[in-house]
Amino acid sequence: MSSSILSAATSGAASCSQRSLVASRLLVHQTRGAAQKAPAVKVAQSIGGVKKGQKDKWERKIGREYTHRQHDIPVFTRMSEDKLKLPKTDKSPAVLPEQFQPMSTSLNLPLFEPKAITRKNVGTAAGFDLTPTNPAKVFGLPKKMFLEFRILSTPCSVIRDVTVETKNKLEKAKDSSSKDSRIVLTGRAGCGKSFLLHQAVQYAKSEGWIVLYIPRAKTLINSTTTYTYDLRTQTYLQPQASYRIVEKLLTVNSDALSTLTLSAPFTLGGDQDKSKLQVFKEGTKLSEVAQACVKDKSYQSACGTLEVLMRELEGQTKFPVLMAIDDFQSLFHDTAYRDPFFRPIKSHHLSLPRLILEYASGKRNFAKGAFLSALTASDTQYAIPLELQDTLELGHRHPVSPYVQRSETLLQYASGLDAKAGGLQNLKVPEKFSVEEAQALFEVWKDDLALTNSRHDETFMAKYVESDGNPRDFVWKGVLASYAPS
Q1: Where does the record place a coiled coil (predicted)?
Q2: What predicted TM-score, i.e. pTM, was given to this entire model?
Q3: Quick check: is 1 in a domain?
Q4: pLDDT digit string (tens) for 181-206?
């Protein structure tokens, strides 16, 4: 009986497998037939990698991306009056609201130039010249400043007492070594340190200085560009960031670099392809060396070219040199770059932060010029480290334990910043606007149609008191926060 049950089970299993095999073959046959009857998919024709009929769209996209990469200052254009008019009704035609009607005054500001920076003009707003070689257009700007300049029809700033003081320091520095003119701007968050640094850059450029301006130093350590280890220097090179600095340095200072020459021969090119090596003899213009580096899109020669340019700028005495660094405190933090063991790379192990720290500490100097930097007190990711707080005597917001570890290497760099030992000078920026300075800035925004309230005197006093005179809060939490149709 058991044998008959077993034979029946095996025969049933065999029949089931045969049925499943027949069903699978039928399904494959049906799918093949459906595939053969399906209409052929149309392949889009392309011209140069772009779909036919979309070339104009692609060119517009490339143009927008190129404009975004240029860090240019877009000029604010007002909307047409037709778009701002209230729609017409049965009882009244389309009218332009009072807050959008043209005012009797226009934003006609004096130019920010050296002769305008005097005690007599303190509390006066001055506009910047938007030439193609303007440092703001080439090197870029801090984010908040960039947004303000984008809104205003004419980028401008207010001449303050500390502006005149900074000008006087740069006047003394143009005939002495940069080791004697190393200044750091400190103060409360939003007091105008970045604006003062930018004013110093604009002044130096107008006076014929060679200017190197880095408005966002944290971009050198936040792992946004490539890096590679160099066995010779035992540091991590940053070829892409070095290429950008060489390109911008050439654009802003092309006239000065065309009059300076090499003091020793220099070989330009990568180590992989010896046929592309380019030898520059002694006496070659620095502008030609920089142009050859810019043409090399592989970035292999950027680090070496930047080092040669900086060495030549150190020794020459024809032009004073200004190195201006914003977000300076970020260079004392661990970077977002990682070594082969996925450990954070120290900032002084990267080529560009190390270069800046050497000029800041006095290990490297320009024969004529100055080093000017600004600390960002509102950055929580890259806060002011203890090494800088102790050296610059900034004080501590909270009590610090004596057992908190300090970096010995950063302390060595910071020791060169000690003002008592002839190091970095601490220039404290006033925490508040004076009434005259705040009034000048208020008039700029009022004349540029940023206010919708006609009671200007009451609005000015209210916003000045609400912001406690802090320049950033006065603009962003005061003037611009009041922009709402009544």
Answers
A1: none
A2: 0.79
A3: no
A4: 999 999 999 999 999 999 999 999 99
